[in-house]
């Protein structure tokens, strides 16, 4: 291959570019990104950035970026894959390439009259909105919503978190561990409302719940998930279904096109995690250069979240058989394992709160 184009200039795109160079690709490398910013780290946006402790955190310094010798096309959107070898951009130009890495990530699901937090520009707008806010409403008690709530409380705001499910993070951690994480909100003075949907959000920020209640809020943030950024691929040669459809090695129905990160539906699974994006990039680029699937990625599902000064870590999958192995939920310091329903001795998932050392040891036992 002489030219490879990477569509997406965030974590997955950058790691793909770095992996290609490490694996010996010395041809032309084009990186297309719809943001004007060079790659930055997203996790701090909901935490230290909102708190004013840091500005944008680069994912690579200038020396490392220079070493990639890439043609950066920033502030430009991909509008279509015209063929297996031609990419159309929003500025009217096209890029001809022998191979493509699709790393366009996800697009936040929105609710009218709310903020979202996905990009640096989103974070800047939200941080500015927090300055004069007294009461912050957060819709969605997933990881991103909980982190925003935690930051708002640290800034001295009154916070109400609204979750449609009976407990936060139920789909990820299960009911018991999700409820344990939800208790952090009350511990630190936030109000958590569960089991009710949001009907609407007023222009001035007030939240109307489906059961008739009204929640006062000056600023409302929606953390209700993302959808894969695949609109630009509609009608093109790459198969799309809840993301870019690819095998366990990130290879799509076109052998010269791979997908990584939040946008990749790898073997029927789409992982929206920082570590997955990094790990997938190594495998997918190797397969791209080989012209076939010579390696596959096993999704470990590792995710971490910092909320109210507590670090939550999870890996694997949640089951109904969950056992606290050390510490206690009441102390907000514990490690629990999830067991396989058919083989109770098999650990298939681990979750921890403020116990990184034991979490690291137990995760080695995952089946």
The mean pLDDT is: 96
Radius of gyration: 21 Å
Distance between the termini: 38 Å
The class by helix and strand makeup works out as alpha/beta
Percentage of β-strand residues: 25-35%
Largest sheet: 5 strands, parallel
Q: Looking across the biggest beta sheet, what order are the strands in?
A: 3-2-1-7-18
Query: Which overall shape is indicated by the principal axes computed on the Cα atoms?
Result: globular
Beta strand count: 24
List low-pLDDT spans.
none
Number of helices: 7
Share of helix, binned: 10-25%
Domain Reductase C-terminal: 302-364
Keywords: FAD, Flavoprotein, Oxidoreductase
Domain FAD/NAD(P)-binding: 3-281
Protein name: FAD-dependent oxidoreductase
Please, could you describe this protein's structure?
It is globular, with a radius of gyration of 21 Å. The model has no long low-confidence stretch (mean pLDDT 96). It is built from 7 helices and 24 strands. The longest helix has 18 residues, at 170-187. 23% of the residues lie in helices and 30% in strands. The two termini are 38 Å apart. Helix 5 (170-187) links the parallel strand 10 (158-163) and strand 11. This is FAD-dependent oxidoreductase. Its cofactor is FAD. InterPro entries: FAD-oxidoreductase/Apoptosis, FAD/NAD-bd_sf, FAD/NAD-binding_dom, FAD/NAD-linked_Rdtase_dimer_sf, Reductase_C. Keywords: FAD, Flavoprotein, Oxidoreductase.
